Structure formats: structure tokens, C-alpha cells
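hey
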């Protein structure tokens, strides 16, 4: 099975292969503890975000979301990003957003 998987990855479009392998690694690494000497990607990002000024945080988030727009990002990751943004709104803003963009507003 490993050989078939390696051959499929080698034959895939490099962008598709990268996205699929990233999603698989994320799924496989859930719940594991980081090593003593290395930070996980999330820990590294959290550390950087503690020290980044607000303008840089917004610029990086905007650039990141734009870059992810056309990528086959893992659905669970997209949901997680959406929920972080959603929870950043106060309840009144959430209601106003849902009223404007919610079900049946298309």
C-alpha cells in the first residue's frame, strides 16, 4: 500500500500532492505532543502572534486567506479558520452578519 501511495503522489500534480499530504499529516498528527526541542506549526504561530503588532497580524491574516482561497485546504482547517473569525465578532455583529449573508440571502 505504501508503494502505491508513493507512486500516486509522484504522478499527481505537485500542488495537489502537496495539499493532500499536508491534510493527511495534519490528520495524523492530531493529539500528539511536540518534541522537547521543536515547536509545532501552531505553537510557532502563536508565539509569533504574541509579539506581532496588530497591523502585521491583519496583513498576514489577509494574505493568508487570499492564498488559501484557491487551495484545496482540508475542510476541517477551513471550518476552524471560519470559527476563529466568527467568534471574534460580538453577538450583535454576528446577528447583523447572519441577517445580511445568512440562509436565503443570495
Amino acid at each position: 500500500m505504501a508503494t502505491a501511495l508513493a507512486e500516486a503522489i509522484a504522478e499527481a500534480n505537485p500542488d495537489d500532492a502537496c495539499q493532500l499530504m499536508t491534510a493527511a499529516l495534519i490528520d495524523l498528527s492530531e493529539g500528539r505532543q511536540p518534541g522537547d526541542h521543536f515547536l509545532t506549526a501552531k505553537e510557532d504561530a502563536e508565539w509569533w502572534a504574541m509579539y506581532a503588532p496588530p497591523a502585521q497580524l491583519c496583513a498576514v491574516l489577509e494574505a493568508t486567506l487570499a492564498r488559501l482561497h484557491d487551495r484545496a485546504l482540508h475542510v476541517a482547517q477551513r471550518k476552524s479558520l471560519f470559527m476563529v473569525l466568527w467568534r471574534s465578532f460580538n453577538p450583535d455583529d454576528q446577528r447583523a452578519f447572519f441577517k445580511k449573508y445568512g440562509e436565503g440571502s443570495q
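The two ends are 45 Å apart (CA to CA). The longest helix spans residues 14-29.
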